[in-house]
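dumping this here before i forget
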Amino acid sequence: MAQETSIRLVEPTSVRPNPENPRLIFRAQELDELAESIKQQGILVPLTVYQGTDGLIILDGERRWRCAVKLGLTHVPVIIQPEPSRLQNIMMMFAIHHQRQDWDPLPTAYKLKDLEDEFTRREGRPPTEVQLAQLASMSRGEVRRLRKLLALPEHYRDELMDELDRPRSQQRITVDHVLEATKAASSARHRGLVTDSQEDELRKAIIDKFRTGVVANTVEPRKIGRIARAVDRGEVTVAVGQRAMSRLMHEPAFTIEQAFQTSVERIDFEHSTEQLADRLTARLAEHRERDYELGDGLRSSLQRLASELDIALAD
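structure:
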């Protein structure tokens, strides 16, 4: 079937949304802004569609179509393409839209699973991570992140979908909040700071602290990982780490920063300083092995360092 590239004018009522579109959320404010632009200038970019059994199915332009319906336009410009297979349809939806305004991650994750399942059905085997990334026009890192979302317990995914109905500025819990809380709780469990049954309790406590504003920084849960690593290195006892996690779970106003300060802040700082000192020692040894002369800037910096070392070692 030859591809048709001419623009046609069709009634909006003859057009249907694409069931394979990963964009499930269409926020009113964003649609209102687009509708106002269309009201002033018209639809400048035609919709891309294909002929389905019950009408023209949108490949590109559902937001424009929704605005046309809302404005009561009698015609919209379209370009009709050949009907794709379901696998091709999902791939095209990803490819067409991926580089535009960011999709909400969770609906995208659900559609990525559909893409994976359709490939498996057709090929008799699941795609590799590389293949799935290519099919979805994504990086492997993006694919991994979306798969982590699908691995969340259902009630977290449901809560995130409910949040998507709010304007972005009013969303209290985002995908990043839940993923960071999940990673932190998992790190604590692996180091024995919480039991298997307490892992979700800790995750929920962190998410609740995000919701109430007790924790405002999205990446602050990473400090729980730093506590866990300090325990793993034997720099603090398991009991110290467990007490910090218990307070996080049972004291709503207790912050992650407080947990960090009361357990491993000094030790963590000293460990980071130790690593810097080791790297500097190795760097200076390499400098000497290369028989480089000390430049004025480096000499001045080392003199300041020597002064600080004299003070530190004298304490």
